[in-house]
Amino acid sequence: MSVFDQLIGQGHIVSALSDAITSARNGGETQEMTHAWLFTGPPGSGRSSAALAFAAGLVCPQGGCGDCIECRTALDGIHGDVEVIRTEGLSIKIDEIRELLVRVAWAPSVAPWRVVVMEDADRLTESAGNALLKAIEEPGASTVWLLCAPTLHDVLPTIRSRARHLQLRTPSTEDVTQVLIERDGVSPAMADFAARASQGHIGRARHLATDDAVRSRRNSIMKLPFGLSNIASAYKAAGVLVDLATAEANAFSEVKDEQESQELAQAWGQGAIGRGMVSGGSKALKELEKEQKSRATRMVRDSLDGSLLDLATLYRDVMMAQAGISDTFINNDLAEQILRLAQNTTPEATLEKIAAIMQARTNLSFNSAPLLTMEALMCILAEPSHHASAV
Question: 3-167 — its CATH code?
Answer without folding.
Answer: 3.40.50.300
